[in-house]
Design the sequence.
């Protein structure tokens, strides 16, 4: 299981007294950010709610008012990511140059993503193998991502920026699978080169959107 690249704690965004008077939405976001750090530092399975409370600068009892369990924290993190993803996908769908906007999305959310957030993805995926509730959340999140990607491909076809014969769901699955590999290599490959990876990914996407990559079909049965 991947471990955090550092054990140093990042500085808290606000001193505890100011956070105590922050609106509930901001407090939930602060707690979720603290949970991310704890899950990466200790591993999701070994992390405790007490550690999250300490990282967030609050009592465990107060933490449970916002999130009753580690699973609830993961759900909160996923919902926050989903809201950000919807905005990003909408920006791509309305772009005059979809591939260029996809490259920006790739840089911002994959290859230049803060390393601890990428480690967290692998941590939560590992936990999903033994925790049915986490697995259910991950499946729902993956389905949402695939649906969004398929929608982008459909939009590209409508704008004449993708081949008419390109199946949106095939393209979505290919992109999803490829990016999943990038997340893993971003954490584990010490020779990971951002510019090389972006160039290779964009070459793949250009070929995909041009219709040069199509699903293989089984021979028809007589």
Sequence:
């Amino acid at each position: 299981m991947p471990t955090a690249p550092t054990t140093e704690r990042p500085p808290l965004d606000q001193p505890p007294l100011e956070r105590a008077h922050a609106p509930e939405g901001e407090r939930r976001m602060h707690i979720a950010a603290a949970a991310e750090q704890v899950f990466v530092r200790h591993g999701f399975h070994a992390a405790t709610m007490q550690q999250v409370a300490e990282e967030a600068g609050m009592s465990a009892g107060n933490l449970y008012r916002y999130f009753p369990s580690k699973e609830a924290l993961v759900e909160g993190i996923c919902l926050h990511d989903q809201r950000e993803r919807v905005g990003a996908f909408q920006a791509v769908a309305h772009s005059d140059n979809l591939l260029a906007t996809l490259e920006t999305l790739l840089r911002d959310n994959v290859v230049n993503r803060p390393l601890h957030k990428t480690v967290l993805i692998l941590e939560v995926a590992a936990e999903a193998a033994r925790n049915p509730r986490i697995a259910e959340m991950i499946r729902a999140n993956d389905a949402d991502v695939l649906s969004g990607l398929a929608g982008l491909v459909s939009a590209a076809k409508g704008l004449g920026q993708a081949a008419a014969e390109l199946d949106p769901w095939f393209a979505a699955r290919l992109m999803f699978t490829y990016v999943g590999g990038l997340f893993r290599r971003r954490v584990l490959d010490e020779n990971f080169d951002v510019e090389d990876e972006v160039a290779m990914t964009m070459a793949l996407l250009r070929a995909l959107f041009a219709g040069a990559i199509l699903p293989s079909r089984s021979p028809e049965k007589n």
